[in-house]
Amino acid sequence: QKWRYQSDKSQSDEKNKSVAPPIVTNDKVFLLSQNNLFALKNGNILWNFKVKDGIMKTATALADGTILFVAGTTLYRINEEGKYLFKLTLDNPLVTSPIIDQNGQIHVASSEMLYAII
Prior knowledge:
This protein has no helices and eleven strands. It has a four-stranded antiparallel sheet, with no helix packed on it. It has a four-stranded antiparallel sheet with strand order 5-6-7-8, with no helix packed on it. The N and C termini lie far apart (42 Å).
């Protein structure tokens, strides 16, 4: 075992538990909980990005090091340092992982709609 990370036991509610598989890029690991995206290095938290407008469900790491994730009806993009790049609120709760195609267009879906975002 090289390292491990244990969530804050003082926050015993569900909001601090992992909700998706971790994402690994370069030397960082990104862990998604219901309201937070944590960046870890060697088991230590580098930063934490918190959302207030929905429960985080899924995330995607891109080749440029940015992270796309969905929370409720909102699509977010942040960089490797946890800096907010954009937020786009759509009509319906999002249910799929966001992906990006070879032309740089982002695709994400709700249960009723497929969105293509430039």
